[in-house]
Design goal:
The complex is a heterodimer of chains A (189) and B (79). With 189 residues, chain A is an all-alpha fold. Chain A is built from 3 helices and no strands. The two termini of chain A are 15 Å apart. The longest helix of chain B has 26 residues. The radius of gyration of chain B is 19 Å and the shape is elongated. The chains are: A mainly alpha (189), B mainly alpha (79).
Amino acid sequence: MSGQAEVHSIEALKDFRAALSLYGEDALAALGAVEAEVRRTVVWLHQDRPIYWQEQIKRRRERVASAKADLFRLSLQKTPERHPSRAEAKDRLRIAQAELADAEKRLTLVRRWQPALQQALLEYHGSIQRLKDLAAIDAPRGAALLGRIVEALEAYVQLQLPAGSSGSPPSDGHQPALDSIAVDILDQD
Amino acid sequence: MANAKVIAGATRLKQTIRALNDRWMLTEPTWGDAVRRRFEERHLAPLSPAVEAAVIGLQKLAETLDQVRRDCSDRRETP
């Protein structure tokens, strides 16, 4: 690598180092919150839903049977003189049958979604893997690298400045030693 | 409507990369050497494409989770 070190503000590097560390943590936290939501949905789909809909099918079958029995009772009460209305009982049966059909359809959908969701999650995890690696491994590594560069710069500045003075490294002077320090640190990364 | 918690995750990822890029915009002019360019290539350049891919994945996931909830819920259940 050629050229000179041109660092005008060690403080700016320190600030960016902190921002990079925070970035890694924030990105992982955001993905972690999503993962929690994913786990809730998986548990709901695999554990809660099959039991819920099987129970609903059982109850709704009972309601259909009861509505059919009511309708049958009314038909027995029918005589040449007496014609009890069956409209309401027929409505109840129609609604009970529709609700049973809906529960059966939902259970089928639950069973269909179980493998489909697993596939969707595989694709999702593939789409975030690179970012996860960068946030978990690369961002801390980059922050640590900046930390070492900052330490080296501060040590260099202390050597260059007269005793008792303080400040930033010279911004436009020739700094081959400083350049060499930073390159060495980057090469070790 | 896509899953709100997943969409919130995508929004957070976009905000955090924007904050980091804004911070870099302030840092970059103070560090003008070849080491900075190597650091940028190695540690910063890969982030934005990775965030974009993750956001697309999150949007798809949000739609899928919402579809699962709609298909498998009982309309009479309280959420």
